[in-house]
Design a protein that fits this description.
This protein is α/β, with parallel strands linked by helices. The protein has a single domain, classed as Vaccinia Virus protein VP39 (Rossmann fold). It is built from nine helices and seven strands. Strands 3-2-1-4-5-7-6 form a seven-stranded mixed sheet, sandwiched between helices. Helix 2 runs parallel beside helix 3. The longest helix has 20 residues. It is globular, with a radius of gyration of 17 Å.
Length: about 240
């Protein structure tokens, strides 16, 4: 096992951005429930479960057990203590899954194309892979480097890597249009020199006031133009 260098940042994001986290959870569960109609037997994997904030939310809304993959030994222990079945490698799961989702994880994996191919192998035929990752390589900043990102994605890059793994793209759009502008500011000013940006008060302010406005702009069409993140729903071929 390994240890994740950005755990402090992860803890801040999950603790001080509850509205944002709920929205990520709902994007995943909406896609899953649309397919399953609340089937209690649905098998779902959280690929890179972290602290388990998203995992717990998804499990609660689905009313079905969520399995976890997590490579960080400390985070893995926390997930086990919370009652989840956790492994640090895909190969250790005996079962296949109808759904696999991953939130802000693929950018931490150097060979992400291989990871996507392995995820394809763990899905049942017609299963879905739900992906949430940071967008636009030119936004790569000191913050990305600090938390161990290898990249930020373009739409075309992500589509190509999924297509190479034989996935069919069903849905793809940007998320957080105001976050895109904020990321440009952070890139220009510098993460270390921005003082409180990324701290508790700024995260709380963003979550309470900025994020709802960003969601509104996304809903009226900005999600097709730009955003801080990309959300994708991809389906494994049925045969």
């Amino acid at each position: 096992m390994m240890e994740y260098s950005g755990t402090n940042e992860l803890e801040n994001l999950e603790k001080f951005t509850p509205r944002y986290n709920r929205d990520v959870i709902r994007r995943f569960t909406k896609a899953i429930l649309k397919e399953t109609f609340e089937d209690p037997k649905v098998r779902t994997l959280d690929f890179g479960a972290g602290l388990g904030t998203i995992t717990r939310g998804v499990q609660e809304e689905l009313g079905a057990r969520v399995f976890c993959l997590e490579v960080d030994s400390t985070l893995c222990d926390k997930l086990v203590a919370d009652g989840f079945e956790v492994h640090d490698e895909l190969s250790k799961f005996e079962q296949t899954f109808q759904f696999i989702y991953t939130s802000n994880v693929l950018e931490h994996i150097e060979d992400d194309a291989l990871a996507i191919l392995n995820l394809y192998g763990k899905l049942e035929p017609n299963g879905q892979l739900l992906i949430y990752v940071p967008a636009f390589p030119f936004l790569y900043s000191e913050m990305d480097e600090k938390v161990g990102h290898f990249r930020r994605y373009t739409r075309s890059e992500l589509v190509q890597k999924l297509s190479d793994a034989r996935f069919d793209i069903e849905t793809i759009y940007y998320v957080d249009s105001i976050g895109y502008v904020a990321s440009i500011f952070m890139k220009l000013v510098g993460f270390q020199r921005t003082g409180n940006i990324g701290g508790e008060s700024s995260l709380l302010f963003y979550d309470k006031y900025i994020w709802p406005l960003s969601k509104l702009l996304d809903s009226i069409g900005f999600k097709y133009l730009f955003g801080k993140n990309i959300f994708v729903v991809a389906r494994k071929e049925s045969h």
